[in-house]
Sequence to fold (508 residues):
Amino acid sequence: MTTGGVQIGKLQQACSHCGLNQLCLPMSLNEADIRQLDEIVERRRPLERGAHLYRFGERFSAIYAVRSGSLKTYTSTEEGEEQVTGFHLPGELVGLDAINSWEHPCSARALETTSVCVLPFEQLENLAGHIPGLQRQLLRLMSREIFADQQMLFAMARRSAEERLAMLLLSFSNRFERRGLSPTRFRLSMARSELGNYLGLAPETMSRLFRRFSDQGWLKAEGREISLLDLPALRALAGQSEDEAPCEGPAALR
Amino acid sequence: MTTGGVQIGKLQQACSHCGLNQLCLPMSLNEADIRQLDEIVERRRPLERGAHLYRFGERFSAIYAVRSGSLKTYTSTEEGEEQVTGFHLPGELVGLDAINSWEHPCSARALETTSVCVLPFEQLENLAGHIPGLQRQLLRLMSREIFADQQMLFAMARRSAEERLAMLLLSFSNRFERRGLSPTRFRLSMARSELGNYLGLAPETMSRLFRRFSDQGWLKAEGREISLLDLPALRALAGQSEDEAPCEGPAALR
DNA sequence: CGTCAACTTGACTCAGGTCAACCGGTGTGG
DNA sequence: CCACACCGGTTGACCTGAGTCAAGTTGACG
Fold:
């Protein structure tokens, strides 16, 4: 047992036993392929709240899958402005934006105690060349990220503050639901101001929005504990028709 | 010779002779690998201005590389609102956002007479499994797209209308320059209102911005013919420091 | 108990949207 | 060949959603 971000060994959970494997990279791989993937996955001891997984400008060496907890990724300018580019929940990959330049173009920081699986990129690339299903899944996940960013772009360009918040809440709702958790009651691990930053809104605006939403009876918010009380109303606001498959479409919003 | 979108044969230019091959997928492949890539590339007769390369909801079968001309991609809601998600110049790939769902989540339409190379996805995937350099380049280009979308997100969330326009103009400038064209004089193939839509701005605002920019002596605009007269001023506005490598960083903005 | 950060609330401001009128080029059909 | 319509663009007047600033309030934690 050593200090630092040192590997703890492949003792416990392998991908094959991980409850998230149907959301994550192993999705639709067979037993043997998953075993090969397991060979290259490193598991470190968890990050503490506020700790960085990587920082802007660091050399890229691996992509990461969130195993438990949550992360935010953000860029910052010289002037110190910060822009949150995403919140990442268990089963989701981070670091895909660094493949191009081999440098992380943003930083990733734990919002709570968080453990990740480390996927050393060169080995992953190599393995993907041998396992078509893995290559495909990697491309799919990157494609999904592109799509999600475009949805978000649309939201930022054309949607009002209310609509954006509704979309974000539904996005969380869907992402919790996919993991088998309640789609209507969940605890957010980030501050209002971080949500606001992500949506391009001032913290004061967030506060007013939450108030308006709970006055309308659409949700109850006790601090970071959220209950969504009227999904149809939120969907209507977010511009999702009632029957729209909530797992595809705008719901894939990050 | 047949009608419709039929293949015209691999007569003329193969990737190996294409002037864009250092921007496009073949980048950093060797002769032999490029030949294999050439095997699967289809080249159709050009799209006319206004014609669709694909439409929202269509089954995904291939990604496309722009060879000449230009495209816009856009999503539209049931209510008929349209949101431009990108402009695509020669050497750039489109359709990457469809890999995830096997359906195009947006439409792509030619802004002028445009020819594209068709890369049937299953064959491309297969080939990428055999040619590590190809797989890597594909991942790189997708990664770059993710990064560019995030830059754009940042711009939409935190930047003023002026700053956004400056960024977009510099993006075009850089993209023309990479192709060996003038970074300061170019013809845009899209309407002001399409630029505005992309940036989340009303056409009236675009008009006022162009006026303000030319009053300041930063550019001259005669219709769609643009001359950038003061790159440093535009860079300052866009938040790029003078010496910042213009080919990486925010310049990769699409 | 004091401190600090997250969150609220209210008052005011302003960037950019909306609406309406108008201009000039271009295509079209009589 | 001309009249008309249409589209993209421009300009002005006005309005409003959300940012900003300032002053609390609440809650967690040492």
